Fold these 4 entries.
Entry 1:
Amino acid sequence: MRKKVIAGNWKMNKGRSELELYFSQLNREVNGGLAAACDRLDVICATPYTLMSRAHDISSVLGVAIAAQNVHWENQGAFTGEVSVPMLLECGIHWTLVGHSERRQYFAESDLTVEKKVSIALKSGLKVIACVGETLRERESDQTGEVVARQVDAILSGAEGHSADLTLAYEPVWAIGTGLAATAAQAQEVHELIRELVGKRAGPSCASSIRILYGGSMNSANVSELLSKPDIDGGLIGGASLKPKEFATLINVALG
Ligand code: PGA
């Protein structure tokens, strides 16, 4: 039985003054409180770098893990504007996103940089949520399988020997921030394909244990149906994670 994951991606939103209220409201709205919920599933918030330390101080007692939204593939050096794995670990951060489509689209993230980031992060003991997903143009020209396979392949190359700490997220680019989520059937089809790809490359036990999250306009209206699918193990949630009440609903549904 795979433990579910509900991960919020705050992107470039929120400030320090909002943190206490956010986590106390979230704690209040989650059935039985966050600490009990976090015994049964992983609740993660990927905050901006500037909020991570403070958010970690507040949320770690509640069982919520704080994640980075990106990380560099070198430990140190002349990389202006970047943050490395040891820097995250030093702040008590044990999770990071890698390869989000906004990083791929706006910051020239490639399959190669994703592979390098996944590799250093996992080797250094960080847990990784690595993202894949096709654009609308790719879906409309029947390239979804090919694109996702290429992206998953790069991630698995980086994860070789360390896949226990790897979580994948299928995030169709056309569904992110658009309010147009994939249907549960569309998402399940791609999740099943991803699990098959993992099986071919990393073996059946890795395929059955790896968690694959859905992301792209997941909200309180569609979460139940999405999470009812056999290969969907949770969500990576942008907009709906910014509102504690809405995010709590997703956690409550995942708790069952
Ligand atoms: P969204 O974002 O839930 O706002 O669509 C998801 C993501 O980008 O991870």
Entry 2:
Amino acid sequence: MDRFIVDPVEFAAQAERWIGDRINLVLESSRRCHLMLAGGSTPLPIYQRLAMRKDIPWSRIDLYFGDERCVPVNTSENNYTTVMRSLFPDGDRPDGMNVYRMCGEENPDKAAEVYELVLPERIDILLLGVGDDGHTASIFPGSAAVDEEKRRVMPAIAAKPPLQRLTITPLVIQSARYLLVMVQGEGKADAVRRALVDRSVPAAIALDGDWMMDTQAARALPEDQRLGF
Ligand code: 6PG
């Protein structure tokens, strides 16, 4: 559960390095790597950097998504679409790589049930972001997903549009082999403090993971919690 606080300019490179190194670490002892990606905008430059690395054996990676907005696939609000455009800008998927998309355009309850069936028992590398209200994936403050103890995927209602979502639950977050929470920008500083210090928002579910923050997102943390590289 490391806390990395990095210069905003270095954020994407440091996060890409963390992810790439753990993919290669997992593949040292496993035939395949189950990598679950975060949506939103923060990770997109990180995915673009990952796309340029030559040492990632994408053919041995199974891609999953931590949440999805229930909007048509080829729209800019769809996490699958924005993530895949960042990772594979030319649209070509590497042979051998499996991609498991959350079908947000289907009936949410059915789509959640179906997605749960394709999830591996354990995600090797789970990437998460944090919203300015302290949500992570699409587990929003006050939602039933916060306390879900049976399902690993469920429908969710967001606090901001698109309102209908699908999300992983705490069960997936807490069982991940490696977990990285990526938070950038001053607008997230309060959410970071509420997650890591007060433990009062859903992002606290990821407390035991590694957190990669830029100095702006970490600015509201108490001095003793700021362990830089
Ligand atoms: C989503 C994400 C969500 C995201 C946070 C932060 O579907 O929006 O999965 O959990 O990580 O909302 O979003 P930004 O990175 O865009 O600030």
Entry 3:
Amino acid sequence: MFSVIIFTLYSPLSNYLKIIIISVSLLIIVILEYSNFKIARSNFNKKNELSNLLKSFDEENKKIKNSFNTFKLAFNNIKEGIMVINKSDNKITDANESFGSIISFPGIVNGRFYWEVIRDVSVLNGIEKVLSLNEPTEIEVSSTLTTQTNHYYKIIPSGSFIIVILEDKTLLKKSERIRADFIANISHELKNPLTAILGFLEILNNEEINESERKKYLQIVYRNVKRLIDLVENLLFLSSIEGGNYISKTSISIKDLINETVELYKNKITEKNIVLIVDISNDLPFIQANEFQLKQVFINLLDNAIKYSSNNDKIIIKVYNERDYVRIDFCDTGVGIPSNEKDRVFERFYKVDKSREKNSNGAGLGLSIVNNILESMNGKIEVQSELGKGSTFSVFIPTNFTQT
Ligand code: ADP
């Protein structure tokens, strides 16, 4: 168009005609440029719209992803196990992490047939019943697979799926059992001395008895009252440790404390002709702890080692550093503890039946007190034992309680 203008300018046409041609050309140029501008602008607007659309799509996508992740996190962190079974192919479409861990299933649960994962016949029967009923039915089944665990299933139909909710009630049942045992045991421990006291008081009150018999019966009453007081004192001591009351701490030499404890039991050890070996490492740090409580730990463990040993048995006390702890082993060659009762000896009032016959005095509180004291010091106690061969109780006291 510009060449037309230049050509017109230098052409021999009249000025009047030149003006008309140039004006028309310029007009055409303006119109063309304007239409180009409009097209560009609409293209620009379209591009903008598209990028806005993409942006909002991206944001929605992020929101969906976030809520899905939150849902998955919650799903996996619910302490109950949840499993979803597709009714059409009997396969598991989804299961949270708790499900696998409660039943200790090794590997991935999703995508398997439900009977590959659930082995408990009563639960499988429950699922089959819900599948066959074809109507909204909710059933509850307690697993009977093992006696150590207590698993409780709820099976709920939901459209074309079945939802299985699994609760691990093992700990709950265990604490219920401990509570019931505690009440039965404390009643038993109180009843025995009270019955003896009542019986001998009746004899003292009603019957003609001579002076030496009177003294003998009063001694029995005295012993049983003392036993009741010991019992109550031990219970109060236990509850004060459990209550976490502040106790004063001092710098303690474990070597001295062990030697003092051994001194207390010298006579009993000689009476039973027990061979005692005390082996204490020389580089032990001082411990910041309550001396009375720590001594109670050593007394209870040495007392048991002697009580549950026969004449001529052997007891070894070994004290040494082990990683972040000072470790003290009380090792005896006595009656031992059956393996299925080892963990229970730390429960309040728990007594192993076999050894109970040999020992008429213990109330089953000693190890519970030991355990509680050590827990309050961030320490721990472990037991290894073989019935008829002996036991080793190992005490671990953290050295971050120490002062060198
Ligand atoms: P108790 O006062 O009856 O001895 P403990 O709490 O100290 O109570 O111990 C609980 C039970 O653990 C005891 O009744 C006994 O059966 C068993 N026990 C504890 N120490 C030993 C040991 N060294 N050898 C064998 N059995 C033990």
Entry 4:
Amino acid sequence: MPIPSDQLRYILGDGGHGWEILIRARQLAAAGDPPLNLCVGEHDEPTPPEIIAAMERSASAGHTGYAALEGTAGLRKALAERVSARQGRACGPQNILVTAGGQSALHYAFRAVLDPGDAAVVIDPYYVPYPGTIRAAGGVPRIAPARAENGFQPDFETLDAACDGARALLINSPNNPTGAIYSDETLEMIAEICIRRDLWLISDEVYDGMAYGRPHRSAAALPGMAERTLVVGSMSKSYAMCGFRCGWIAGPEEMVSLLFSLALNAAYGLPGFIMDAAEFALERPEIEARICGTFERRHAVALRALAGAQAARAGASDGAMYVMIDIRPTGLSGRDFAHLMLEEERIAVMPGESFGAAGAGHVRATLTLPDDQLDEALRRLAAVAEDLAAGRRSAAAG
Ligand code: PLP
């Protein structure tokens, strides 16, 4: 074949994907030996049937042609109301662009604020696709570590230094993989850096409905931030609609209208029946409350299961669908511990290192099993960690 573009190779980066544990877990499952799977950030329960019925009604009624590429009027209005309520500031349909999931929103956001070669700062540990998404927009990801000792909140010196000469900063709170929710102090520090350095802030808030330990606050609501912030949202997590691929960008009207040309030339909008289903869901916040309530309950189950363990601690986890567990007292890397858990205990968790160097010595567990299985998996994980730390078990045994 002719030579693929340099651009495409650039997106791939070093080619490492960090999903080895997930792939192995799937192999075991296919071989009839399924592990307790705490690897994937996707609901174990299906999309609520009433949302699927709304989608079917819309498709049957003929909403299968090209739909408004910026999003249907009804959906943009419903999203603007949601964003206004969450951020405590006025936001209208003109501030909303509907996208194919939060992932497309991230892609569009970076295309909107980066020119080729511009740096965008990513806080480590991070959602795995972030660096590739920045590269896909021609940008250069610059990694700023957040330390476990700080509850994975970024610190001023590190972040400010990383932002020197950058064009954009990406934050994600509630956070995947750590579950951390940024404190008011952290958000104010971020706002101060963005304003002083004249940065765009891309604020990934796809877990905004999943805040348990402390309230979620959008950085866009801070003084001087609305005009420089693109908030990324999604129906995937809060409404168990991952496969619907429906997300959005909320931002300054001028930027949102500039983004129409990208939306036109990239995907030409979303299917109308998907957007109608999303609008239907947003008009029923009790669905979101139910789904997020399940994760809140499981979050408590997870913290109880790990309570008292010295070698498996869930320090930072305040929200989202994840608990990041510090297993450094075992002396193992997150990767070795995750492999041991999978091969010897048939429990699949992600190595913290998959999410960046700052995740070293941690594993991420998703809250995507029924309460009793989650409890069992994490109690066993904690017991293994305690045994390793006390020298009662050796990593080489498996
Ligand atoms: N951002 C974060 C932090 C995520 O964890 C995910 C999915 O796991 C996404 C964005 C993308 O979600 P989607 O494209 O399904 O909306």
